[in-house]
Write a sequence for this structure.
């Protein structure tokens, strides 16, 4: 059986990490031949797979031309399906913008489409909300056009996707931390500046829905209410992406820029709290990463977060810098609470599919869909 794994549309963030994890485990399925299409932003993954016998790696960025956007055609990808006799396509996360002429299973990680009541939208200007609405109409069309088979990483999201695409089949296969976290010998040290205090780590690309700028107001609240509390925020984004931070607060912020996945474990090792102020999420790998690295979590009290973290996080109202500051202070100053959250995280990890289970379930599911298609 020939399977094409499509990551040609991925550029940054958690999607790239998931694709890396899946692709690097395909060598265990020797009964299949895989054609893996990586975007030009995934050269590191390409290097890892260069000697895998049952995997052919191709670099290609899906086109944004009229043919692709209107009709779902990409001549290069269409050629691969035809010439490699592909039986089915697994798009790690859609929309693929491309409509394969074979069985197509697509990951769904676009919470904007299924959670219109998120506080994220209340923060936007009228023009920004209009832009989001128009973009979501296009995304829904592109998803519906390309496949009738979806998988999500969260049962809550699967339910919502099923309501949005009522004629489609939706499956749940959870995310997990990348396998590099289980191999310390492969970690690369990313050294933070020396610091005596509480370090709050946020590993993410700069997305509006992550609501990272709330940290500026949180810093103001902490300085005013708890002047003796020593803290800093560490973000894996560029400082230029952030709003201007007043001079008296700049010492509370460290921007390390984009990091490779092999550098992330060392950042957790140097941190005391994983802080994720996100307003929209299907799944965030930073939750299981923090649990694995025994880093207590402070995050928003939204349903997706509670479903993923359970008792392993201290929650706060998503738009309240005051509540967030209080949660950070409580976790940062209470050793017993930190241990409680860490212990709960170890238990919560058991509710996820591991990276091995995830790739196995995805391949078996696609195989099943291909077999059903052939029998019809």
């Amino acid at each position: 059986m020939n399977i094409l794994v499509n990551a040609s549309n991925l550029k940054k963030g958690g999607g790239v990490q998931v694709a890396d994890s899946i692709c690097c485990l395909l060598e265990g399925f020797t009964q299949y031949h895989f054609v893996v299409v990586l975007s030009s932003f995934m050269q590191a993954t390409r290097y890892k797979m260069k000697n895998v016998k049952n995997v052919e790696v191709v670099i290609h960025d899906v086109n944004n031309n009229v043919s692709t956007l209107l009709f779902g055609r990409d001549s290069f990808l269409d050629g691969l399906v035809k010439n490699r006799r592909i039986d089915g396509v697994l798009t790690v996360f859609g929309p693929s913008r491309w409509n394969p002429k074979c069985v197509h299973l697509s990951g769904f990680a676009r919470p904007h489409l299924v959670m219109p009541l998120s506080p994220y939208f209340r923060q936007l200007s009228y023009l920004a909300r209009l832009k989001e609405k128009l973009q979501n109409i296009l995304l829904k069309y592109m998803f519906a056009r390309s496949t009738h088979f979806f998988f999500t990483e969260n049962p809550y999201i699967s339910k919502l996707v099923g309501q949005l695409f009522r004629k489609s089949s939706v499956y749940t296969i959870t995310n997990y931390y990348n396998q590099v976290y289980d191999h310390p010998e492969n970690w690369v040290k990313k050294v933070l500046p020396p610091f005596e205090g509480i370090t709050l780590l946020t590993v993410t690309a700069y997305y509006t829905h992550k609501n990272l700028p709330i940290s500026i107001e949180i810093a103001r609240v902490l300085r005013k209410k708890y002047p003796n509390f020593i803290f800093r925020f560490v973000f894996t984004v560029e400082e230029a992406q952030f709003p201007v931070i007043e001079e008296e607060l700049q010492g509370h912020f460290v921007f390390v820029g984009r990091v490779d996945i092999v550098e992330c474990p060392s950042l957790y090792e140097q941190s005391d709290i994983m802080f994720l102020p996100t307003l929209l999420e299907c799944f965030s790998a930073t939750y299981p990463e923090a649990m694995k690295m025994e880093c207590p979590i402070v995050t928003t009290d939204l349903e997706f977060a509670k479903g993923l973290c359970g008792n392993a996080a201290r929650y706060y109202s998503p738009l309240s810098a005051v509540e967030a500051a209080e949660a950070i202070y409580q976790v940062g100053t209470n050793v017993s609470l930190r241990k409680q959250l860490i212990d709960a995280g170890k238990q919560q990890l058991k509710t996820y599919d591991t990276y091995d289970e995830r790739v196995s379930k995805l391949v078996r599911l696609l195989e099943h869909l291909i077999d059903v298609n052939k029998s019809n």
Notes: The mean pLDDT is 94. The CA atoms of residues 218 and 224 lie 10 Å apart.
